[in-house]
Amino acid sequence: MLTGALLILAPLFLGFALSLENRRLMAAIHYLVEALVYFILALLGLGLGQMEGLVGQLGAMAGQMSTLVVVLFVANMAGLWLLHRWRPMVPEHRDASSGGAGYVRLFMAALKPLLAVLAGLLSGYFLLPELPQAEQLATWSLMLLLFLIGLQLRNAGLSLRKLLMNTQGLGIAVVLVASSLLAGVLLIPVLGLPWHDVLALASGFGWYSLSGIVIGDALGPAWGGVAFLNDVLREIIALAIIPLVIGSRPAMAIGYGGATSMDFTLPVIRSNGGLSCVPVAIASGFLLSFLSPVLMGVFLSLG
Asked: Considering its fold, how many domains does the chain have in total?
């Protein structure tokens, strides 16, 4: 397990250590990352589809996933509400020029990961024979993905020092991590896993392509599916609640999006909360994107 954790973390840190200035290369990396994400998710679905006794385990997986989503939601929102009470943010007025079409497109795009997993699941269950190299292929694809994401984080034009100095974004990230780990502690007797594995499950912060494969590789495809669904549902729920709460409690809206606040949910945060929310969302999302693989790697290495 320790070796696996180091394999997860090493490419991320290696990519983060390299500086690139070629814009065309960075654009190519962006498209390669997107393709790798869907490829990895399809492999996750393939593993689920070829899992022995899949149909009999679907009910248990649904219950575990629902419990994880609900407990994390309550813990995260409670922690972020306390942060709002302590250090309230005042967002700008909503951008009146922003329409609903962009929001609908984002919401529909959030369903694409589910479709990728579903395609892999159906292929594995009905069409493809068992592929013994699929797990190894998924692991190496994840290594490449983390290396490329490290490059993206380093070359996104963001100063780590400035991000850490954004006290609101830092506070949101710290509260989301702390409340997620507290939720994980509460879930230990419920999920029936060792404490470190439950804390790893709670450390996805919305990064579904990472958590699904990492957890699946360590705990099996069923738990990988639970981790994936938990984190993709965080993204979908965030899209639904951001317009409802960002006007009165911006920290709750930005924070629940987790790692997605710096990319996928950022347009919704910008259009509903104004420009003042953007640096806070980028700071919190960046820090959570960096902490998620670190925490999952550390917790899984304890097994």
From this structure: 1
